[in-house]
Amino acid sequence: MVTDTELTKGDFTLSDEPFDLFRAWLEEAGESEPNDPTALSLATVDGDGMPNVRMVLLKGLDERGFVFYTNFESQKGEELRTTAKAAMCFHWKSLRRQVRVRGHVEIVSDEEADAYYAQRPRGSRIGAWASQQSRPLESRFALEKAVAEYTARYAVGAIPRPLYWSGFRVLPHSIEFWHDRKFRLHDRILFTRQAAGDGWLKTRLYP
């Protein structure tokens, strides 16, 4: 197996394992990006086939896929539960690199969601209760009032995770790595597979 050192200091196109390569790139981004190296653009599709895209934060990565958390009743939550498909794009400007991910989506287990929710700052846990994400808000004061109400309700003790708040895991069937080169002659390496657990097919693409 190619080591992280070889992946970062040598030719990344030699790697045959996309998750190892992604971890190496993410580690480097953590050292060079000024803010949120785990930020990614998440694309979903609504019931009319119209795309939506927004920024979220990567909160988990294993051999199954890429995990993020949200409100199930938000626009993205509803779209993800309806289509069970998504695309992601990581862009690390400081490294002149990009990673694109496409795949099906599954809901994380309650155990995973509870464990992540419990480690969030208390204010963020309160916010999950107070925010009716993506729905009309009459004023900033209404949001602050809701925050105050839930802060008082959960003034002491544990704050339970709302049933409508959990995580999604994107199970990639394709992961593409892009690295900027001079004169737009970039390196692009695409990894594809038919299903989770299958081996990866690696293809070099024209820039």
Overall domain count: 1
What count of helical segments does DSSP give?
Answer: 6
Helix content: 25-40%
- Mean pLDDT level: 93
Give the C-level CATH assignment.
Mainly Beta
Instruction: Specify the biggest β-sheet.
Output: 9 strands, antiparallel
CATH topology: Pnp Oxidase, Chain A
Low-confidence residue ranges: 1-8
CATH architecture: Roll
Q: SSE order in H/E notation? A: HHEEEEHEEHHHEEE
- The CATH superfamily is Electron Transport, Fmn-binding Protein, Chain A
> Roughly how many Å is the radius of gyration?
19 Å
Description of the structure:
Helices cover 30% and strands 32% of the residues. It is an alpha+beta fold. It has one domain (4-118, 163-204): Pnp Oxidase, Chain A. Strands 1, 2, 3, 4, 5, 6, 7, 8 and 9 form a nine-stranded antiparallel sheet that branches. A hairpin with a 4-residue loop joins strand 5 and strand 6. Residues 1-8 have low confidence and may be disordered.
